[in-house]
Amino acid sequence: MRMDALPDPAGPSGAPPRPLRIAYVTETWPPEVNGVALSAARFVQGLLQRGHRVQLLRPHQGEGERMANRQEGAGLAGLEEQLVPGCPLPFYPQLRMGWSRAGTLQRQWQQWQPDLVHVATEGPLAWAALRAARRLGLPVTSDFRTNFHAYSRHYRIGWLQGIVLNYLRAFHRRTDGTMVPTDALRRELAAQGFTDLSVVGRGVDTTLFTPQRRSQALRASWGAQPGDPVLLCVGRLAAEKNLLALVSAFRTLQACHPRARLVLVGDGPLREELRVRCPQAVFAGQRSGEDLAAHYASADLFAFPSLTETYGNVTPEAMASGLALVAFDQAAASQLVRHGENGLLVPPGDALAFCRALAELLDHPQRRQAMGRQARESMRNQGWDEVVARFEALLHQVVLRRGANVGNADSALPAAVRSGA
């Protein structure tokens, strides 16, 4: 049974459910810059604002995390963090895996007594958390956020794709429910044997990402004169993002639009190869906060060539910033873009159609600008509050499904846990 098919956790009286004690497990967290880390922080922040108690279990990230967490910490008051050792992820050294023994987590949770454990990633730390929760009889929910099985073919280990998919399926089937960001992904995973799937989308901060942050000074730093069109792409500079297709398309477009500029925001292992293939591109590096928002707003067109996204947070960020979007018809783009109104969608993998769509909007600046205005308008009701509220409701439903009394934190636990046995 899907989680969203369960009854209203508020019950027939309509009274709001009591706060939960939630152990939230993730192997990526700000200041790491990726969609999983940033959206995980948003969900945790939303849970805290709704009065829930959250224990965050994540790997140490080194000295760089301290300053960033001081900057982010204002919205995470009351968060209890449990840091564990970590090491770089193979083939993806900018991300880390966490390590802990299930027995250690079991003893810790016997004391803290969570109502539920939520795992946002599927690495060793999450596996230990799943084992510990199962020993204690605690309900567990999970997120499917990253197509790691699809990534394998971009790192010359395509033979691992089936093995990784089998692991992910086995992992998620051991939880009480898995949340996915789009209905298309829910259908795809269901066809591959995943069960108990529910859709929880993503939000966008329309006060941060807004056309009002457009900066002529920033455009000038890119070498863009008034009237010069700027194509922007934001994301990790890595093989799985299909950026070579974007660079190829841009070089083709330069024949008719020699004043066009390409700006790549992000960093990663493909940076030097991209620089060699397209020395005219501007490599802006990683950006965050208002600085990132200014980069979006100062461009004219968002070009997103990725074929491996489960969602793609950059899609609503670009649209909220007033940019028309050209993307393949999948993930968030398929859900948010109305073809011909606020952007253009092309068949997945059709590089020629992708290039032609970019050319169409470069050739018709007035149409591009009208689409950008429509993109901004379509994001006005895509805030985080409703998204977090749905996430919260699903957590309550899982606790109810396991026979717990949400109004009493102790009664939500097995007797052995309450006694500390």
TrEMBL record:
Protein name: Glycosyl transferase
GO molecular function: transferase activity
Domain of life: Bacteria
Record keywords: Transferase
Source species: Sphaerotilus microaerophilus
UniProt domain Glycosyltransferase subfamily 4-like N-terminal: residue ranges: 33-207
Entry keyword annotation includes Electron transport: no
Record keyword Transferase present: yes
Short name of any one Pfam family annotated for the protein: Glyco_transf_4
